[in-house]
Amino acid sequence: MDKKIYINQLYKVIDSDDEKVDRVLWINDSNKYCYTINIHSTKALPVLKRIDELLTEIENELLIKMVSDPWVRAIREEDMIEIDKKNRERAWDIIKNIVDQPQIYIDKERRKLIKDTSQKNAISEKTVYKYLKRYWQRGMNKNALLSDYYRCGASGNERKSNNKKRGKPSDLSLHENGYRGLNVDDDMKRIFRLSIKEFYESKKEASIQKVYELMISNFFTRKVTINGKVQKELIDKEKIPSIGQFKYWFNKFRDYEKEVKTRKGENRYNLDYRPILSSVDTEAWGPGTRFHIDATIADVYLVNRFNRDWIIGRPVVYAIIDVFSRMITGLYIGLEGPSWLGAMMAIANMTEDKVLFCKQYGLEYNEENWPCKELPMSLLADRGEMEGKMPDGLIGYLNVSLENTAPYRGDLKGIVEQYFRTTNLKIKHWTPGLVKKEYKERGERDYRLDAKLDIYQFTKIIIEVAVHHNNFKWLNNYKLDEYMLRDCVNPIPIELWNWGIQNKSGKLKSISQDVVKLNLMPRGKATILRGGIKFNKMFYSCELAIKEKWYSTAELKGSWSIQVCYDPRNINYIYIPTKEGNAFEKCHLLEKNNVYKDKTLEEIEDRLYEERIKKEKNTMADLQQRVDLDEKIKTIVNEAESMSENIKIKASQRIKNISSNKKLEREALRESEKWEIGEERSNIDSEVVMLPINDNMSENEDLDLFKKYREDLKK
């Protein structure tokens, strides 16, 4: 505990019935005595006290040292009104020669000093007392003598309504005797509130004047019948509030936040009107802490690379930006999206060697110009393409925390949104086929016909803009911290990135690009069968499956499922990832499915869909044919049954003679089926002949009888 008493220190008395706070005014040279004064009492005067007694009371917690001073006013000279300055200087001139004299605290001596001062300045002793007490109670400085004009007028407090008209008389009351206007009472305020809520706080966005008129029409009219028609007529004008009164109370009741939300919608409020109490810089403490990703449809029409007569529309531009340094870390320019495929391409580019990436487009840059090829700790994106199961590999295997903005909250990714705006400004003057926002005049040329760039050339432009941004963009609103200022870091993305890598605990992660691509690909279920790895009705195989004998195992023990990754743009291969997600087995399409080779998944699904439609269309026709076939078979069977009704041979004999009967039938068939080349044979209609076989005839006798009938048939 601090065992010292200081001049101007405040102490609160704990056991006092009212709130008593003493200020220390003076301490003697031996530090044994002091004078204090109650800072709130209007009758207070300096009181002599012993220092050791005060310290004892503080130690016993009967006094508490106060940190804040209730009388302190933080006001600058330029903010003071002239009358305040004038009164303060006058009061100070009166007491400045006596406030520093120790005798002023002794009753008898104080009385003499005050009397002399009042006579010298021709003012009352009471006024001198007032200045002294104000000086002592309010902080013992010149500003303690400021008047309390700022408390005058009961600002913010409503006046009570009575019969007397408040406020300035209206112009109408000066010209018409007897007209006074009205005071706004509680009932009138309720009408004002109802009118504001009903007519102003709505999507119609009515003006204040219109709201006033609607209020008058609804609350200050009566219905009258004129010429048989019911009309509204204003009531007595002395009972109608003026537009000035309505505006005054409108502003008193006004809730700006609620007003914007009800008139423009909550999404618009969050986007354009919400309080901005923090900076995006607080999201990141080093490179890689957080990246922002977003997409936009470029304001330019492109042509086909192989036939420049074909206009192919507007491309999609994806960009990924590091929050800490504002570096562009990934790009994708194409016709995918905005979708997961487009986002997937941009994230893959984020981990790509930018020197090799630029070379693909004939651009020569070194790693110092664009050193970014790592994954961040977290990625902030829109809800659309980053929702669902597609980003599971990004989150689970690559260990990137994914955050989605609320709907219609593009402002939460302000860095990348601003990059898109500045990029558009940089290229708009030089890009043919640029979208014109203004309306086209009659007969004016369609700007889409001005398209000259193909997607390869447009990508080169976007890369050049990104490299320029990374290496030369001066970030006007970037707040450099004290350590950056010490190291003379300029607010340029590449300098912030390099400084952050060396001095901040960034969260960049270096991972093989193949592994990144593997974990960004969509995933599906494949089935291990005897015929191969079946995925989407196509069969694949791989070295691992052959080595571990998956196919024979599936035949013996049954099929099982595995998870595979695939690129829907190239279905020639699928990939079996390891559980850790850091390796994979590549599977190739089998020859029996070559019909699907070099096709996209979308094309294959379209073909399979068409085959299903054809099969469904053929179902009824096939069903009819099956019915017809059943009838034909049934007719033949019925004929056979009718021909077999008069069988007289015993059942046992029929069974016994099967072998001999078969031999006879075979001989007959051979005779009828035998070939004779070069000789024309007459066509003999076949007919069934019943042989008069006797149960007592031998096998040879049966055969002779059969031959005889055969010879007769030849004749």
UniProtKB/TrEMBL annotation:
Assigned keywords, A-Z: Coiled coil
Pfam family, one: Mu-transpos_C
UniProt feature coiled coil, ranges: 606-633
InterPro entries: Integrase_cat-core, RNaseH-like_sf, RNaseH_sf, Transposase-like_Mu_C
Gene Ontology terms for molecular function: nucleic acid binding
Domain Integrase catalytic stretches: 283-501
Keyword Transcription: no
GO biological process: DNA integration
Official protein name in the record: Mu transposase-like protein
